[in-house]
Amino acid sequence: MPVSPLREFESQGPGSTPAPTAVDRVAAAVRTDILSGALAPGTPLREESASARYGVSRHTVRAAFQRLVSERLAVAEPYRGVRVTSFDRAHVIALQQLRAALEVEAVRIAGERYGDEWPEAALAPARDALGALGELDELDEPVDWLEVERIHADFHRALVAASESPRIIESHAALGSELLLFLLHVRPHYTLASLIAEHRALLDEIPVRGPEALREHLEHSTRLLVGS
């Protein structure tokens, strides 16, 4: 009997890393479609069609969709089912306000510790992210924007990590997929080269201007999407 590409259960040998469950894999596949733009904002997510596409039960699909709802990549509405999140003005502003509360405060805390001469160890993870973006820019092939967005998010996570504040780091990490969704929508406003240049300048400014530099950066990206 043929085995489903997203079979419900997989056997594991002793000591092996647990394989992703069917729910994990359906959620990952739909998440990628959302974050790549293949599924536009407001697109209905249908249990029956997803069940047929991935060869799993509707129960599995339903659980996967609920995971995406918990990540704020989708919304569940009474009598309308589950849809891809519509990234409207209110959503953008609310997310950016939350990001500012976490990221700007993280930089403020780090600045109190380091002053205007941050040690290289504190800046290295963000520099590494910029280096990874630079390597992508040098490739003689189309830009993998989903990978760019993941590294872009790593840059901002690195700034937050410099605070060494466990609760702020944890809260920022919880934004996860929602932050990637924001970066998808801001993508048309950048080339990869301009994205790298803007973030390199930001990293140079942060030790000197601290939280105000990051606040201006986030306000700029907000204006790109809401037009004011």
Describe what you observe in this structure.
The chain is mainly alpha-helical. The chain folds into two domains: 22-84, Arc Repressor Mutant, subunit A, CATH 1.10.10.10; 89-226, Four Helix Bundle (Hemerythrin (Met), subunit A) (Up-down Bundle), CATH 1.20.120.530. The chain contains ten helices and three strands. The protein has helices at 22-36, 47-54, 58-70, 89-114, 120-138, 145-161, 166-173, 176-186, 192-209, 211-226; strands at residues 44-45, 74-77, 81-84. It has a three-stranded antiparallel β-sheet with strand order 1-3-2. Helix 4 (89-114) packs antiparallel against helix 7 (166-173) and helix 9 runs antiparallel to helix 10. It is elongated, with a radius of gyration of 20 Å. The model is unreliable at 1-12 (pLDDT under 50). Keywords: DNA-binding, Transcription, Transcription regulation. It holds the Pfam family GntR. Residues 20-87 form the HTH gntR-type domain.
Radius of gyration (Å):
20 Å
How would you name the CATH homologous superfamily of the largest domain?
Answer: GntR ligand-binding domain-like
Using the 3D structure, state the CATH architecture of the largest domain.
Up-down Bundle
Strand content: under 5%
Sheet/helix structural class = mainly alpha
Uncertain runs with pLDDT below 50, 5 residues or more? Answer: 1-12
How can the largest sheet be summarized? 3 strands, antiparallel
* Domain unit count: 2
Let me know the average pLDDT: 90
CATH topology of the largest domain: Four Helix Bundle (Hemerythrin (Met), subunit A)
- Helical fraction equals 55-70%
In whole angstroms, the N-to-C terminal distance is 59 Å
Strand order within the widest beta sheet:
1-3-2
CATH class descriptor name of the largest domain: Mainly Alpha
Number of strands: 3
Number of helices: 10
GO molecular function: DNA binding
Organism: Agromyces ramosus
Protein name: DNA-binding GntR family transcriptional regulator
InterPro entries: GntR_C (IPR011711), TF_FadR/GntR_C (IPR008920), Tscrpt_reg_HTH_GntR (IPR000524), WH-like_DNA-bd_sf (IPR036388), WH_DNA-bd_sf (IPR036390)
